[in-house]
Design a protein that fits this description.
alpha+beta, 2 domains, two-stranded antiparallel sheet, 10 helices, disordered N terminus, ARB_07466-like_C
């Protein structure tokens, strides 16, 4: 399980029950995924949105007593943000995170050793149990330096203001459920209104920290359109994806029907991609005699076809972007090492895109060589 200095994404009996049910459902889906038709209409996962959601969902209503408690904790979180001169957007990200992790309640239990509003873990360096159960300390830790423990907080994430809200939350939490935060935006805004919090106020998104990463703006950038959970184009990037992925041998018949063998990790990725991306056409194992160093003959790569040259069709380009974005957002739990799409290559090691030059083997101006007609995915 991928977990580096973040939360588990699981908190409270209700959240645990919901996610347990989701896990059972996923197992069931994986059991039948190979019979889903290729080209089935409609993606089940829109990049930046919760699994199975085609638009921003909403939290169920809560009683007046719980709402007042939530508003009280929201004020504490916002007081920390205001004291740090952080913009209202920072408070919104924090509220969405706390709603996912604990229903914005200061609970003393959670997955493994997670506790508190943000389900921060003592074993991951967030502080002691007593510290984390102090809402002000927990908010300081979530926002990050200078008054925070070792795991990076929001102000430590270069470029977070231009991320979608759920991406920014995930950059701090490093959850096994990276897209779950998006569904809580409406509830967070309602609670903020009850608490009298201005989510539109300006501020310094880095709390006085100087951003030194080349190409990363330091101002109050516009939030990525992915927060709208629409199907527009645009590739996301983010931060490096850490994890431990032991080497695997190709021991499973390629589910895409090539007649070759793939690793268990690749087979698991194929199943998830088919379930979440409406079974796109793909091919994985290939001898690749013209490029024997490729991951395809090792059973560690797949090509996901988008139905044409993305340079010639906005709809095809958008489809490829959605596939690429989903692959990036789930890389922490699937073991994706890099992907190539639309003349660019993304690496889990850096978390960033850079131009793809063909590696001295392919013509990057060609639809196939430049990966304008398919998304290449390589796994560890």
């Amino acid at each position: 399980m991928f977990m580096v200095g973040g939360s588990s994404g699981l908190a409270g009996a209700r959240s645990v029950a919901l996610k347990a049910a989701g896990a059972v459902a996923l197992v069931g889906l994986l059991g039948v995924v190979t019979i889903l038709p290729f080209g089935a209409a409609g993606d089940r996962f829109v990049a930046g949105c919760p699994l199975g959601d085609t638009g921003r969902a909403d939290d169920p209503p809560v009683d007046a007593t719980m709402q007042q408690r939530q508003a009280g904790f929201a004020k504490i979180i916002d007081n920390v943000a205001v004291a740090r001169n952080l913009p209202g957007r920072a408070t919104l990200v924090a509220l969405m995170t706390a709603l996912q992790e604990s229903q914005l309640e200061n609970i003393s239990y959670g997955d493994r050793d997670s506790v508190g509003l943000f389900q921060q873990r003592p074993s991951a360096g967030w502080g002691t149990v007593e510290q984390i159960l102090d809402p002000t300390y927990a908010a300081e830790a979530f926002f990050g330096r200078p008054k925070a423990p070792s795991p990076p907080g929001l102000v430590d994430i270069d470029g977070w203001p231009s991320m979608s809200y759920t991406e920014a939350a995930q950059a701090v939490q490093v959850s096994a459920f990276p897209n779950a935060y998006a569904r809580h935006e409406h509830a967070a805004r309602r609670i903020a209104a009850v608490a009298g919090i201005d989510l539109d106020r300006p501020g310094d998104p880095y709390g006085g920290r100087k951003v030194t990463t080349p190409g990363v703006p330091s101002g109050d950038e516009t939030v990525s359109a992915l927060d709208n959970c629409d199907e527009g184009g645009g590739l996301i990037s983010g931060r490096p994806v850490n994890g431990v992925w032991p080497p695997q041998q190709a021991t499973i018949s390629d589910p895409t029907g090539t007649g070759g063998m793939v690793t268990p990790r690749t087979a698991a990725w194929i199943a998830l991609a088919r379930t979440n991306l409406a079974s796109p056409a793909m091919s994985c194992w290939d001898a690749h005699v013209w490029n024997p160093t490729s991951d395809h003959p090792k059973g560690k790569a797949c090509d996901v076809f988008v139905g044409g040259d993305g340079r010639r069709s906005p709809a095809v380009r958008a489809k490829g972007d959605r596939i690429a974005n989903w692959t990036i957002q789930t890389a922490g739990t699937t073991g994706v090492r890099y992907l190539i799409w639309y003349g660019k290559i993304w690496s889990a090691r850096t978390g960033q895109w850079k131009p793809y030059n063909g590696g001295g083997i392919y013509d990057p101006s060609n639809a196939t060589g430049g990966h304008f007609d398919h998304v290449h995915v390589s796994l560890y």
